[in-house]
Write a structure and sequence with these properties.
The structure is a single chain. By secondary structure, this protein is α/β, with parallel strands linked by helices. The chain has one domain (about 5-155): Rossmann fold, CATH 3.40.50.970. It has 7 helices and 8 strands; from the N terminus they run αβαβαβααβββαβαβ. Strands 2-1-3-4-8-7 form a 6-stranded parallel sheet, sandwiched between helices. The mean pLDDT is about 90.
Length: about 160
């Protein structure tokens, strides 16, 4: 599936008080192409997860963090913070676009491409889902118990 096609389905579940925080990379372009409002801000490569934590503490709505697989693996310590403080981040849904490449830096293969972000989250005690069809994203968002990770298995983005 294409990342922007999957992210279009977020429109089905986003509410007025929700925030979207986006990581820097090809996924930023996918979010823009999906027409999502990133009023939650953007972070440097991998930094969006930490920014999302701040929004979780101050927001009543769901905080969606859209991050690529490269940025996700760069900042696993942030996910560990979430796992150790689930009550503080019970409104966080991390959407990891896995396309097995570092699109931002030239499309190099992601060395962690055989490791599933959903499995990593589950190993830390967090709820997780894997989505391979865009139409399944709204159900996955509704079914996870935040804090949670939803892995979006996508074809290589390649915008940059």
């Amino acid at each position: 599936m294409r990342a922007d096609e999957a992210l279009l389905r977020l429109h089905d579940v986003i509410e007025d008080d929700d925030k979207i925080v986006v990581d820097l990379g090809d996924n930023t372009i996918a979010v823009a192409r999906a027409g999502l409002d990133t009023h939650g801000g953007t972070g440097a490569l991998g930094g969006a997860m930490a920014i999302a934590l701040g929004h979780c503490v101050k927001s009543d709505g769901t905080v969606y963090c859209v991050i690529g697989d490269g940025g996700f693996f760069m900042h696993l310590h942030t996910l560990a913070t979430v796992a150790q403080n689930v009550e503080k981040f019970d409104n966080l849904v991390i959407l990891v676009i896995t396309d097995s490449s570092w699109g931002m830096t030239g499309g190099q293969p992601n060395p962690a491409s055989k490791v599933s972000p959903a499995d990593v989250a589950a190993s830390m005690g967090l709820d997780s889902e894997v989505v391979e069809d865009p139409d399944d994203l709204p159900n996955a968002v509704s079914e996870v118990d935040p804090p949670a990770v939803i892995e979006l298995r996508c074809e290589k983005i390649g915008f940059l």
